[in-house]
Amino acid sequence: MKDNFSSQSNLYAKYRPTYPNELYNFILANCSNFNSAWDCGTGNGQVAGVLAEYFQEVKATDISEQQLKNAIAKQNILYSRQAAEKTNFKNDSFDLITVAQAIHWFNFEEFYKEVERCLKPEGIFAVIGYELFSSNEETNRVIDELYRDILGPYWDKERYLLEEGYKTIPFPFKEIETPKISLDLNWSFDDLIGYLKTWSAVKHYENDKGVNPVDILSKELRQAYGERGVIHYPILFRLGKLS
Known about the structure:
Elements: H1 9-15, H2 21-29, E1 36-40, H3 46-51, E2 57-62, H4 65-69, E3 77-81, E4 94-100, H5 108-118, E5 119-130, H6 137-150, H7 159-163, E6 174-176, E7 182-188, H8 189-196, H9 200-209, H10 213-216, H11 218-225, E8 228-241
Parallel strand pairs: 1-2, 1-4, 2-3, 4-5
Antiparallel strand pairs: 5-8, 6-8, 7-8
Helix pairs in contact: 1-8, 6-11
């Protein structure tokens, strides 16, 4: 499991998009019990914070101590620094296990062993994420230049799993058909810039070149996007039960 986000944990907590209620409602409708949930790769606790409204207790794990320091605090959330592939949880502990925008960093074989060990027999396993966003035509052109031309060599090899919509990841579970869900956000230009600076490839580029690539395109992007606009995210979503 890789840690690509500790160094920009403050930006991550502030600018990463939240998931729509429609997504949570579908997951919760498939849960039989609401005693305990595990949010793996929790980051700033965005998903854990929502689950805490429905489950008696939520365990939330990440390998990034900086991310956990910036995580949402609630009385029934217990955060711990643990790798996805090896935890100290007891067998058959959870009614729901979630992993949001993180599974592509995991060792699938080892992580799935933990899911199978820790998930209750009737529990639900949910993989969540979002694809590259879109906006107006000119903004899309500038973002494509940043994403592919400038940052192309700086994306970790695991990124392709996200680009393929998680359709090609191993998924050894009894799959539940999910609806198509998307997220539309009304973002200021500063929101957009802040989000782009959370990208792992941006940090890799900055470490290599000594300059933030988002700043290089900032003027051009402002002209394309304006002071405020609409951002569209297709949501990635796979749901399953133990086979």
